[in-house]
Amino acid sequence: MRRALLFLACALVLVSCANVPQESLPVVVSAEKAPQQANDAPEPPANADPLDIVRLFIKANADPRSGNAASRAFLDDKQRGAWRPNRSFTIIDKTFSTVYDTAASTSPTATPTPSSTAPDPNVRTVSVRGSVLGTLSADSAFIPGSGPAEQTFQVRKQADGQWRISSPPPPVLLVTDDEFDGNYNPVSVSFYSADSGSFVPDLRYVPAKPQSGMPGRVMDLILQGPSAGLTGAVKNLFGDGVSLENNVKNNDDGSLTVQLTGLAGTSPETRSLIAAQIVLSMQTVTSTRIRLLADGAPLVQGHEYWRSSDVPAYNAASSPSSDLQGLMTIGGRIRSLGDGAPIAGAAGNGAYAVVSAAQSIDGKRLAVVEQDGDRVRLRIGDLGRDLPTVDLGGGSLSRPTWRPAQTGAGPSNEVWTVVDHSIIARMVLDPNGHWLRQSVNANDLLALGPIGVLRLSRDGARVAATVNGQLVVASVVRSGDTVTLREPRVLQPGVLSDVSDVDWGSTPDTLVAATSSPSQPVQRLSVDGRRMDAYNSSNLTAPVRAVAAAPSRPIVVADAGGLWTATELGEVWRPQAHSMQNADPFYPG
Asked: Which residue positions does the secretion signal occupy (predicted)?
């Protein structure tokens, strides 16, 4: 009998083994769909009161690991399993408050009156009140915001005497800004602009831990495409059928392997752009070599391993040449910031009553706003030559701003200005050499108020503008001859005000703003407004009325005393070598 049972057991084992495949296809698991690890989050402090339980829950919300295990530890058994938080969340100031909601509960020690129903001493209602700084959207982008935030929680004493949250927590998490910064890293994901032939940074925020998974999380963002704030302004190089064949892998030799699939039939030019996009996007998370494969072969034929130094200088055309030192308008003339001398031609010799001006990024063309009696008009043409007039009507024109030269199209051939703070005029050079006025759909931007300053980014994908003293960034979406400004976002709302001027900074994802603030007159901001840092205010006299910035250039600002320069945030401002009172500086762009 024992032998029979032993034989049967062996037979069952053999049958089971026969159903196990000798090989299995690898399965890519994205960061979002990765299996949740065991909840090893520590339990809340023993005997913590309801206020502390809710407060610690809010602080734990910034840790997304293991399905928000750190936050679930503060929920009772029922809510731990049922809670499904949204991927997006609201970021609030770290100085939020937690208070008992007296309208919903009374103190456990209170003595009920004979006419009232005795409150349950084991249940408390706690309200959280804070100030909104913005939201992290489902596509991992920061969207600035302001205003109050409030959530209410019911906290119940458990059988073991410990307090836990017993009501379903709101699906939209509140996360404090300090905990957000400690748990999320900013990454600059690159997307290609076919219009300017450059790569445009798309700031996103990904969980910082585990650090080894950062390249995989960045690759997920690349495949998902640009954030809502850049959709339509840049090109998604990946088709719907492109995916990762295997998870992004750290190799024993220190390199990183990215294996793509679904790129059959993709042109060599697009493959090279995809390689550049991946390498540029990975710069902030790895410095190692990256092995790029597609469908089992090198993504780019003959080039399997990549470093950032292997990527061509796609953004060279969107950065001013080093020999273009900048210009300034002063006394109706345009002079050089390099030597203070007037530029050649009518714009420098006083023939035009210059109010403001802009030099194209390639340095070859000039746009000038000229005072003509009690009105103004625009002049556009080649630097050093007479500039033909373009009558736009209106009583005011903003300082012009140039679109970068289109890929393979020669010098810059499009310049923008704002007419009467309400209409964006887009001047385009036609094949016959005439500047024709075309429109820009700026309805979403104008809904915020009248436009003061308008600056096109040097990659052409965004604009920065001052609207009612606030700083706003929007994307530039082109479809044929139609141009639309989309997704306008006010940066640092409620904090940054009285902005007098703005320029794009030393990198494509930064801005420099001049304000009338006596204590912090010059600010550097990330393009999404998440970060703002003040330059040193020493030597400056408020208000600062103008600012000029560009890659590999010092910042130049203008105040009542003249022009000042600095390169670092903490650096004391120095007089510009050829400073003149009432001068307004500008770099190409």
From this structure: 1-18
Contact 99, 126 (CB under 8 A): yes
468: domain CATH number is 2.130.10.10
Q: How much is the CA Rg of the chain, to the nearest whole Å?
A: 30
| Same domain? 338 vs 482 | yes
Sign of CA dihedral 123, 129, 130, 135: positive
Domain presence at residue 450: yes
CB 467 within 8 A of CB 452: yes
**Same domain, yes or no, for 420 and 431?**
yes
d(CA 260, CA 255): 16
* 325 and 312 co-located in one domain: no
Short-list 276, 286, 278, CA closest to 259: 278
Say what the pLDDT of residue 35 is: 40
Q: Within 10 Å of residue 472's Cβ, how many Cβ atoms?
A: 25
Identify whether residues 192 and 178 lie together within a single domain.
Answer: no
Identify which of 376, 367, 543 has the alpha carbon closest to the alpha carbon of residue 456: 367
Kindly give the interhelix angle for 65-72 and 50-60, rounded to the nearest 10 degrees.
170
**Secondary structure (3-state) at 38:** coil
pLDDT range class, residue 39, cuts 50, 70, 90: very low
Rounded Cα–Cα distance for residues 92 and 175 (Å): 6
Alpha-carbon span 120 to 51, nearest angstrom: 17
Question: pLDDT tens for residues 113-172?
Answer: 444 466 899 999 999 999 999 999 999 999 999 999 999 999 999 999 999 999 999 989
Residue 288, token pair as written in the block: 């190692």
CATH number of the domain at 80, please. Answer: 3.10.450
DSSP letter at 471 equals E
Please state the rounded mean pLDDT for residues 304-315.
Answer: 92
The Cα 433–Cα 268 span in angstroms is 35
Tell me which of 300, 316, 332 is where a domain ends: 316
**Interior/surface letters 351-360, b for 16+ CB within 10 angstroms, e for the rest:** ebebbbbbbb
The whole-angstrom separation of Cα 199 and Cα 285 is: 18
Token look-up 């007419």 returns 419
Buried/exposed 163-197: b ≥16 CB within 10 Å, e otherwise: bbbbbebeeebbbbbebbbebbbbbbbbbbbebbb
Domain membership of residue 399 as a residue range: 317-586
**Residue 131 to residue 116: CA distance in whole angstroms:** 36
**Dihedral, CA of residue 75, residue 79, residue 81 and residue 84, to nearest 10:** -100
Instruction: Specify which residues 564 forms β-bridges with.
Output: 557, 575
Closest alpha carbon to 300 in 253, 249, 256, 266 = 266
Give the global pTM: 0.89
Tokens of 515: 């304000």
Whether 11 is in a domain gets the answer no
- The answer to whether the CB of 511 falls within 8 A of the CB of 497 is no
- Please report how many Cα atoms fall inside a 13 Å half-sphere around the Cα of residue 442, on the Cβ side: 28
Q: Which residue has the tokens 């009772």?
A: 76
Cα distance between residue 248 and residue 124, in whole Å? 47
CB 257 within 8 A of CB 26: no
Helix (H, G, I), strand (E, B) or coil at 131: strand
Q: Is pLDDT of 21 > 80?
A: no
